[in-house]
Specification:
The complex is a heterotrimer of chains A (849), B (155) and C (418). Chain A is an alpha/beta fold and 849 residues long. Chain A has 27 helices and 35 strands. In chain A, the strands form nine sheets. Chain A has a seven-stranded mixed beta sheet with strand order 15-14-27-26-25-16-17. In chain A, helix 10 runs parallel beside helix 18. Chain C is of the alpha/beta class. A four-stranded parallel beta sheet of chain C has the order 3-2-1-4, sandwiched between helices. Chain C has a four-stranded mixed beta sheet with strand order 6-5-8-7, covered by helices on one side. Classes of the chains: A alpha/beta (849), B alpha+beta (155), C alpha/beta (418). Chains in contact: A-B, A-C, B-C. At the B-C interface, helix 2, helix 4 and helix 5 of B face strand 3, strand 5, strand 8 and helix 13 of C.
Amino acid sequence: MGLQPINPYKRYIMVTVKINGKEITVEDNTLILDAARDAGYEIPTFCYQADLMGIGSCRMCLVEIEGQKKLQPSCVTPVLHGISILTETPTVMSARASMLEFLLANHAMDCPVCDKGGECELQDMVYKYGPHKGRHAEPKFKFHEKDYALSPVIIKNSNRCVQCMKCVRVCREVVGRNVLGALGRGDHQEPTSFFRSFLDCDADGNCIEVCPVGCFMRLPYRYKTRPWDLKGADTICPYCATGCRMVIEHRDGEVIRARAQLGVGMNSETLCARGRFGYEIINSEARLTTPLVRRQRHGTLEPATWEEAFRIIKERMPSLGGNTVGGIAGARLATEELYLFQKLMREVFKTPNVDSGSRWDAAAVEGFIAATDMAEGGVSVFDCMEADTVFVIGSQVSEENPVTEYIIRRISAGRRMNVIIAGPRAMKLDSSANLLLRHYPAAEAALLSAVILDINAAKLAASADLTAAKDAKLDGHLKAAGLTIDDVRALATKLRNSESIAIMAGTEFLRYPHGIESLNLLKELLRSLGKKVRVMPLLDRSNQRGAWEMGVHPAFGPGYVKAPAPGLGISGMLDAAADNSMDALYIAGADPAALYPDEAHVKEALSKVRFLVVQDIFLTETARLADVVLPGASFAEKDGMLTNQEGRAQIIRKLLPPPGKAKVDLDIIRALGEMYDRSFGPKNAALVLDEIRRAQPMYADVSLAFNNKRNVDNKLDNKAALVKGTKAALTIRKFEQAASGQDAQYPFMLATGNHLFHSGRLTNYSKTLNDLMKGMTVEISEEDALASGLAAGERVLVSGAGFSVTLMLTVKKGTKRGVAFIAENFDAAPVNRFFRKGKGAPRVKITKA
Amino acid sequence: MLENVKEEIQATLKKYPVKKSAVMDLLRIAQREAGGHLTREAMDEIAVLLEMQPVEVNAAAKFYTMYSVARPVGRHRIWVCRNISCSLMGSDHIMKHLEQALGVKKGETTSDKKFTLDVAECLGSCGTAPMMQIDDEFYENLDAKKIDGILKGFK
Amino acid sequence: MEKILLKNLNNPDAHKIDVYIKGGGYKAFEAALKLQPDNIIQMVKDSGLRGRGGAGFSTGLKWSFIPKDPTIKKYLCCNADEGEPDTFKDRGIMDWDPHLLIEGMLISSYAFGASASYVYIRGEFAFGAKRVQAAINEAYAKRFLGKNILGTGFNHDMYIHCGFGAYICGEETALLESIEGLRAQPRKKPPFPALAGLYGKPTVINNVETLACIPAIIERGPKWFSSIGPEKSPGPKIFGVSGHVKKPGLYELPMGTTLRDLIYNHCGGMLTAKPLKAVIPGGVSAPMFTAKDLDTPLDFDSVAAKGSMLGSGAVIVMDESTCIVKMAHIINRFFSHESCGKCTPCRDGSPWVTNILSRLEHGDGRPGDVELLESLCTNIFGRTFCPLADGAVMALRGAMKNFREEFLYHEKHKRCMV
């Protein structure tokens, strides 16, 4: 059965119906289409799709119900107890053939030049159901002569449209952009954009993916291949921690398409722009294809052989380095690689200094893991969406985790529930929310403390003194967050009135860790009130959770087992380096020089590391500072496992070999280890996984099996893939809020994060993604733009203490006043120059350039 | 463009519990204000006013035949009914006569921009067929002579 | 017969509220306000009133489906889209007696608890819309509309929503979509409008003529109403006659009046000496009759028994000079022009049929055309989302059944036989 909107008020009554004479018992209200599928009878459809609202318009799914004169559309007709349904009678078959005949009557029939040829649902259906003779001999209506581009990624041919409206519906119901509509009516009806004009949209291409024919097509893929000439591999999108399953395909070694499939993965057919068009980084000319070494102390990086690079490493990196050696691994490496990486650092280099990522403080990470219950095992987003209330805080989820956002939108529209969003900036998901709280950046702590006080107010009411103290405190929090008491009361009321609550907590808690304690407190408080509380982290790197669970962290090893002697995290290592006490640092797949929130500090520190090894696929900001650069592999060039933010373990498969002399990261890490210790291993990904499973209860039973064929069931929630819980002793440290400082000269607080089209700095190497933007931008609220006499599209100068950059202004309605946002993804606008280590959100001013 | 008709728009908005419902009224007002057709700019303006996506406004406008989307028309729009009752009573001749009298074919606008000649499906004036509509008025029981008189009445 | 619905037709001042009240107007509403709402629903049920829009569903029964929960907002929508070609009866009421409609709507709204109503008037009826709006304004001024109407605590607001050229808006769920500001494509049912209609709220959609019958039912009682015409489809009915008759126009007659009586008696007979060739009894969707069917009583069941339908009561009379292929072409051209585009058979099938008919009419018939038309009718009929295309098919089938030779003549000789 398809994924029905979850309805808590629904009574699950079972009914029995006959399908083609076969009796079957299904839930009441099951669609005939689904019941027939359960009984083993496939019914063809164009307009039906499990995750869209049924419209019953294509009429392909008509079936006979005994006793009823008219054929009924099985995709919108629920079963009734006792009815007898016939899906394969001559009448039904002739109806199917006739619908196809009608669709073909106005179809362009230019299959030989159509990109969809070979994987076209109309072709397949005509082949299967007929008619095999054409009777239509009238002129066809032509929407246009030449195909037209709808966006940098969409090329459109309306003459092939079958009017299923899935493009319009997916854009409205799932993506929430609603920029497509049907213009005209009758046989002149055309799903397209406003006046067929160029779209300014999320460029996710979901309209292309749902199109059954060659009407919506990928522009970058156009005329490059026939689908049967493609070779593909199942993989997971590497650009956020939602963990969308997709297939990447190459022809002659060039990756030219990424696609998602209906009913496969938790994302089903949907992806965002990054996932669907970000594959170009694999083919990039800028990929590192050979090791580079700096042969003289202040010399340049020059190509070298692997032997030379390894020889230099062996010479300069002591095997028993201890505290003066450290390792940082990026959260985009595969789980097996991350496991081996920490093993290398801990067992070969005998150092406790190991961390993942480039931005977060290790103690903040530990607290966040504890507050979000990560050690207690995976939490499915679909389970979260069954709660009475979903509370999203600390994440610009529409841009950070677009497909998670689609899921929230789609499911919340189908059932009665609260969606609460707290954050400084307006976002697309706001329209699905029934409560919005716009607070200042870094004020999650204040907001949560205020709501905790309000929920607890009843307990305090007995004492006037306590009440007065509470009020004073509450006022302080409200002022700090920029909220009113009504905002907080509305939130408290919704939480109090919910039996089950899912909190989705984003990376702002890691950026500004003083909120972690309040997050944990709220969770505990709600549980103490008898509520069922689930917490799901919203993370921005594909395998961030995997990295932590593999123990790439100074305080704990694999499975969150406490490290015997805690080491230094990234901040500690950089401080030590700045202090001239780091002998060697091995950074794989991370780019702290570009992303650590204090550029001057990180660059100074890295330059003071006596020996720096960087392993990556591009010459990153960090790699430029290295003594040895090792070329690694992209996600398309390796087998492995990734754990998404829910704690869902999923595998990726190798499509191509790494370019040139580049190697799979696992092989590099292992070879490095072997150089010091011949027995270092395990020797390949499968064996590493075996070792992980043996050693770790979290991963012992996790199932990596998945269906990789398009299917209509849409059973998206594979719970067997969720990691299990473990006992962990994690500490939530108290963080003091770093002052952001009031300064009339700098009226804006700067927020940062990922742009919708980018993930870290990697996606800068995708031409398509770069072309989607007219330039780098700074975003402020409509009111602020008006007040400062600035207009959208204008060039503005953003200046903070010690750094300024010229950007294009974008204006957003509904964003908190006094907030400016610059994405952290742009090489030419390194936002980390605004940040100072240990300080709060930076302040900037914006003036006409 | 809709600045001059703010009050009318406010009154329209009051009719409905959701803003979007006012889209047909606003399109009609915008068409009237622009002298008979709808521009892209007007639809953009309506989209902002009603908090809709421009394409939704576009889709609504393109569904109904009386909106003239991006097609400028003459000062007066003539609709000649061609449905069955009018056809029985000679609407073909009415059309021919109008084409001759105005010197345009159906769907065209006279060179002085005075009239646009269009056909319409049944306008609900069948007991007085054949008939035509000019702007908001019905003209019934037509014959060639009557038409000439009617056309003369338009300046 | 005494006129109920058209008593004010061509009465120049009847649209003014004072004149209307002087003639006994709004008495029925005042009387209704003293009744229990459920009693009114029962009275309308007892009267046997069937919807005059075309489907002929029991009006009282329709109202009784509305949930009784007073906390839920409910709507009444008056279907004044009158788009069925050759139908012009509702226009007669709106132009000449708008208060009759408003009074009917008020009683109905009170009966099932609607707090707001919309009159959906097709855009072409600018005159009618002005009349109804002026009448609504007058009714507000006299406190028949607004808050606490006549001190009874009943609140009701009434608005006009103008269509702008789309026949499909006459389909009740498409009408709702149109009021909501969307493209007027029919909605899937269930949920039926009685449970989730306008803005998702319980909604009744009634035709103008249906609502105009209500005040008389309240005033004179259901027995009086049900005694007019046949037992199963009683009441006065407006017939709009057009085409080749001496006196076309609107006629209010008892249900069950025969076609012969209507054409030869009330309408003064055929326009010229040419005899009658065909007659459409209920708007263009209704299959056509020939002279042999003239004694059919015009009521829902009798017309249906003869394989056609009473529909809107629009009667189109055609004499011997009429080319049936041309008529079929006009009808199908209309339906393909008005197809909303939602479902496949109507969107892509109707234009195909129209293209073939156009060729046939214009002397470009091909062998097998008539057979192909019949096959396409089979493939469209009963398989569409809403009944629009069914109407086109029924009309064509009716024409081909009665005048098959004429179609074949066009196919073979590439010209018209009349």
